[in-house]
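Q: Convert this sequence to structure tokens.
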Amino acid sequence: MVHLDIAAVTGAPGQTVRVSVNIRSSGFPTVATGNDITYPNDVFSLDPTSCVINTATRKTLVVSVLPPDPYNPRTPRSGPTCRRSEPRSIPDGLLYSCQLVITPSAPVDTYDLLNDGIVAFGADGAEYEFVTGRMAS
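A:
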């Protein structure tokens, strides 16, 4: 089973924290991944230019942030994708990281960063059916 996990972080209102996403391939050669990080938009903001790929992956990173949805306070979400730029497998460990800014008015609390839309692909381009991930809280 391939795992894409969001690491837990700690910060105070007004601070910026770096959130890491890690991969554990369990021996399955993984050449591309994707996942969404969903967070409360009244607590966090994300600048997609703050996201960086681990250069050891030899992959490219594509990140987008959706505009806030007035009917869902858990948007926007980032959709980092580690593209299949070459058929080399991604090594286990850090995949990418992004900075989240905690709004100065955020109540001191524990907040979940949901890990949605998790996908991983093998060297033949086929999507693995056995992909999972942990959220951070």
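The chain is about 0% helix and 40% strand.
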